[in-house]
Amino acid sequence: MMTRLNYHHLQYFYIIAKAGSIARASEILHITPQTLSMQLTTLENQLGYQLFERRGKKLVLNDIGHITLGYAHEIFNLGDELVNSIKNHSTDFAFSFAIGVTDIIAKVFSFNFLREIYKMDDAIKLVCKETSLEVLLGELATNKLDAVLSDTPLPSNSAIKAYNHLIGKCGITFFAATGLAKQLQDDFPQSLNNQRFFIAGEGSNQRMNLLSWFEQNDVTPLIIGEFDDSALAKYFGQAGYGVFCAPSIIENHVVEQFNVKILGRTDEIHETFYLISPERKVKHPAVQHLLSAGKELFKKPMI
Questions:
Q1: Left, alpha or beta for 20 (phi > 0: left; psi -120 to 50: alpha)?
Q2: Range of weakest confidence among 88-92, 259-263, 266-270
Q3: pLDDT digits over 192-250, tens only?
Q4: Cross-strand pairs, 76
Q5: Residue 236: exposed, middle, or buried by beta-carbon count in 10 A (0-12, 13-18, 19+)?
Q6: How far apart are CA 12 and CA 16, in angstroms?
Q7: In CA terms, which of 24, 44, 143, 145 is 20 to 30 Å from 162?
């Protein structure tokens, strides 16, 4: 049976990992390199794994080292939060919830989804990171994130042990500036043929589904822009440069916010939203809450 973790050893490991060498860490901690090396060895023996690879004079974290560093970072952050709460004479001991959001998801959906976190009974600090799914899954695997909000599920061939929880799905709505939208409404979707169009960037689920749908309907829009940031496509569409699309769940918001008109919709394309977590049976209270609240979002229009 593994003995209880010695947090002094973990802290020494943490400083060594951040400093990049035992020599530099010993200067920071004012502890001899021999003592630090011995404490690191004790931790590695307890865990049963080496945590570093030696490259010249530098120590480089291996895979187990990265996982351990992720846990250490979280442990020491929680300790800092405890100290700060007590210093502020607060009885509300906030805990952090770190979530990654893929950069293709519309900001208004992310906002409406994530603001539900503040309706929980417990005080909470929300930490949100927005980037590609690949990067976010890597941080989920090393415990830097508690969950990931994505428009695509975890790839079936992924080596990361995580699980997809479907929040909801909806169709796609097409928009344009008022004059252009009126011209294209009557013969939709054939009216999109040879029309200037803004599409999501490479790798997005929406892009792949749209291109397939265009082919099925024998429609060939003139794609004049590709954007990872969906808000940028909306601004170009608002200015009259072409047609863009968005999940139907946010169509009321898009019309109101960007002063554009709807020229058509389709339910043949589904925009899906997943919460990816490290657990099949969700235990984290914030993930449980978001899953429940997220499903409610799809029962009413989003403003």
A1: left
A2: 88-92
A3: 999 999 998 887 788 889 999 999 999 999 999 998 888 889 999 999 999 999 999 99
A4: none
A5: middle
A6: 6
A7: 44
Distance CA 143, CA 11 (A): 17
Does residue 185 contact residue 168 with C-beta atoms inside 8 Å?
no
Specify whether the CB–CB gap between 210 and 238 falls below 8 A. Answer: no
- 35-81 pLDDT, tens digit per residue, is 889 999 999 998 889 999 888 778 899 999 999 998 888 888 777 76
CB 65 within 8 A of CB 138: no
Question: Which 8-state DSSP code applies to residue 243?
Answer: B
CA distance 56 to 54: 6
Q: Helices 7-19 and 33-47, interaxial angle, to 10°?
A: 110
Neighbour-count burial for 181-212, b at 16+ CB within 10 Å, e otherwise: beebeeebbebbeebbbbbbbeebbbbebbee
pLDDT given for residue 87 in this prediction: 58
Strand, coil or helix: 75: helix
Which residue type does 156 have? S
| 262, 180 contact by CB (below 8 A) | no
pTM of the model: 0.67
Look up residue 7 and give its amino acid: Y
Query: Could you tell me if 184 and 264 are in contact, meaning their C-beta atoms sit under 8 angstroms apart?
Result: yes
- Of the listed ranges 44-48, 84-88, 147-151, 271-275, the one predicted with least confidence: 84-88
Question: What confidence category does residue 94 fall into, taking pLDDT thresholds of 50, 70 and 90?
Answer: low
Tokens of 48: 């049963």
Residue 260 has pLDDT above 90, yes or no: yes
Using DSSP's 3-state secondary structure scheme, residue 163 falls into strand
Residue with tokens 């019309």: 255
Would you say 9 and 43 are in contact if contact means Cβ atoms under 8 Å apart? yes
